[in-house]
Amino acid sequence: MALTHADNAQLSGPETNLRRRARAHTRLVKILRWVLPLTMMVVIGLLAGMIGVNALKRSAAREEPARQISMANPRFFGRDNQGRAFMLGASKAARDDHDFQKVLLQFPRVTTDVDGAHPSTLAADTGVYREDTRILVLKGHVHGDDAKASSFATDTAIVNTRTGTVTGPSAVAGQSPVGAVQSGSFDAYDKGDRVVYKGGVHARLNQR
User: Fold this and answer.
1) Which of 5, 19, 26, 162 gets the highest tally of CB atoms within 10 A of its CB?
2) Angle 140-91-135 (CA atoms, 0-180°, nearest 5)?
3) Confidence band (pLDDT; 50, 70, 90) for 5?
4) How far from 25 is each of 17, 20, 34, 36, 41, CA to CA, in Å?
């Protein structure tokens, strides 16, 4: 019995579909062989670029100096253990980059017993004030005076704003209505009413 043309078409249809699918699969495999490695290379390049950018940012952050917290013409107010008010001012104040309890001062000026009858003032070129201990260290052309026409000059003075005492570890020269005095160091108590001079004391008393 002979096969007709229609019968041949029915037999060849499934085979043709299989061949088409095989060719499509082959083309897909070839494309993926190129696309996948390229995609991996692009991803690796992006990761390397991100790592490099982050490394540069960290390096720049390390090299960039810390921004110092500063203030112009600051004024600090407080009271000592006996309730006497004091005022600490300066032309400029800046917190230390490594110790936030330390305040660096330019041309500081501290006035003790502000609201009292006999306030006294100390001024210097530079100063360091610690907020935890409330100790003020003045250095460079330290000059002090009070309402009693007394004054002194030294190179270093340490002011304890908690107790109101002043210590001068450097040589000091003082003037008062009573006379003049020079010594290697001094300690001042009771708002300056009592001063103890130490080391090589030379005094000159005025005659009344």
Assistant:
1) 162
2) 60
3) very low
4) 12, 9, 15, 16, 24
Burial class (CB within 10 angstroms; exposed 0-12, middle 13-18, buried 19+) of 186: buried
Alpha-carbon distance of 80 to 102, in angstroms, equals 19
Which tokens go with 108?
A: 């500081």
How far is the first Cα of the chain from the last one, in angstroms, to the nearest whole number? 159
Pick the CATH number of 70-205 from 3.30.450.40, 2.60.40.60, 3.30.200.20, 2.60.450.10: 2.60.450.10
> pLDDT tens for residues 82-103?
888 889 999 999 998 888 899 9
Query: What is the SS3 string spanning 85-131?
Result: EEEEECCEEEECCCCCCEEEEECCEEEECCCCCCCEEEECCEEEEEC
Give me the chain's average pLDDT, please: 80
